[in-house]
Amino acid sequence: MQLAYWIVAGLLALFYVYSGGMKVLRSQDRLRPMMGWVDRTPMPLVRAIGAVEVLGALGLVLPPLTGVAVVLAVAAAIGLVLVQVGGLTLHLSRGEARVTGLNVVLLVWAAATAWLATGRL
Q1: Alpha-carbon Rg of the chain, whole angstroms?
Q2: Residue 87: in which H helix or E strand, if any?
Q3: Helix (H) or strand (E) holding 16
Q4: What confidence tier does 7 reach under pLDDT thresholds 50, 70, 90?
Q5: In whole numbers, what is the pLDDT of the chain averaged over residues?
Q6: Pick from 115, 103, 33: which is nearest to 74 by CA?
Q7: What is the C-alpha separation between 8 and 67, in angstroms, rounded?
Q8: Using CA atoms, how far apart are residues 9 and 3, in angstroms rounded to an integer?
Q9: Of all residues in the chain, what percent carry a pLDDT higher than 90?
Q10: Contacts of residue 36, Cβ cutoff 8 Å, sequence gap at least 6
Q11: pLDDT tens figures, 26-67
Q12: 43-66 vs 101-118: helix axis angle to the nearest 10?
């Protein structure tokens, strides 16, 4: 179970550090080709979503790694589930059902990470 947690959480953390980091650091013009929704979303909100993703990634890795407040890994995984629920809602409201595959995969991985993390406590 511990190995499974580290594999899934590590991959998820890498994805969210990259994805969230882009939202925090890149301009709206550089994000637009990858994320059409940034045109109708205020940039402070895009940056906040990116920050939540980066913090969630850190929350998956740092507490179990240090052994301090390990329950935060579960909270981080649940938070990332909620991020994907928001992403799915956004895409579906824009009529973009065909691009929700990644959101569904990330939601399932985050839920699996939360479940695996509960076995570590």
Answers
A1: 15
A2: helix 71-93
A3: helix 2-25
A4: very high
A5: 94
A6: 115
A7: 18
A8: 10
A9: 85
A10: 94
A11: 999 999 999 989 988 999 999 999 999 999 999 999 999 999
A12: 30
Considering Cα of 62, then 70, then 52, then 37, what sign does the dihedral take? Answer: positive
Q: Give CA–CA dist 112/96, Å, rounded.
A: 25
pLDDT at 44: 96
Q: 6-9: long-range contacts at Cβ-Cβ below 8 A with a sequence spacing of 24 or more?
A: 8/109, 8/112, 8/113, 8/116, 9/60, 9/61, 9/64, 9/73, 9/77, 9/113, 9/116, 9/117
- 87 contacts 103 by C-beta, under 8 angstroms: yes
Q: Which amino acid is at 64?
A: P
How far apart, in whole angstroms, are the C-alpha atoms of residue 2 and residue 19? 25
pLDDT, residue 120, reads 60
Q: In whole angstroms, how far apart are CA 108 and each of 82, 90, 103, 111, 117? A: 11, 18, 9, 5, 14
